Amino acid sequence: xxKLVYGIFTxxxxxxxxxxxxxxxxxxxxxxxxxxxxxxxxHWPEDLQPKLGKLKKxxxxxxxxxxxxxxxxxxxxxxxGGGKTWSIEEQLQRSSEVKGLSLAELAGKDLILLEPNSFExxxxxxxxxxxxxxxxxxxxxxxxxxxxxxxxxxxxxxxxWIQQFPERFAAAALGGFSGVSENDDFTKLxxxxxxxxxxxxxxxNVASAKKMTDLLKAAGNKNVEFIAFxxxxxxQGNKMLFSHVECVDWMLNFSNKN
Length: 258
What we know:
By secondary structure, the chain is of the alpha/beta class. It is built from 9 helices and 8 strands. Strands 1-2-4-3-5-6-7-8 form an 8-stranded mixed β-sheet, with helices on both faces. Helix 7 links the parallel strand 7 (194-199) and strand 8. The radius of gyration is 19 Å and the shape is globular. It starts with a helix and ends in a 7-residue tail after the last helix. Mean pLDDT is 93; it is low at 2-20.
């Protein structure tokens, strides 16, 4: 009986292992399909990892396939809550379809795309440590043109990040989250470009996104855009946000260079 149980367990374990997608194959398939961006895996150094809190050890980074000259803007994409429990393989595949990598490919712009992955909600302090590392090691980044985009948990993470450290970014595109309050620090964002996006049928998140952009405008911010995608629920709003290339074009107009 013990041998039978052990045999079944071993079979299930091996079957599960064999069904795990090979990340290098996924990566190669993406790069064979993408025409504009070349995607790579970014593994955080072991000595940096303890400082990155709940960030997973692997992030995604993409560069234009065509040769470029001069400095390039950086677009940082933060995933939503579903990504907390997904494998890196699942996150890579999804990002190439309806997340940051997909948007960078669709936009076809000369930029660098960075997509970190997290086990828990985003922490602005650990994200700052991550960004410091990226700017130190990728000197081709134009530090006056750093942009952030995210939906749901990613949108919430960006909202907290730009309130605390707006000087680090040139613009942000975010949506699909709730909890925006009059007590949030809108004074720091009075001149900060924000593109708010949400599915038009995304429950309380619709009012929250509208409240965010309305309060920004009330604070004197003239660089605010808002769109509610008609008929889109939460997942559909995510897909539409990460295919709305107009928001990338819009953000790229801004720089925080003094």
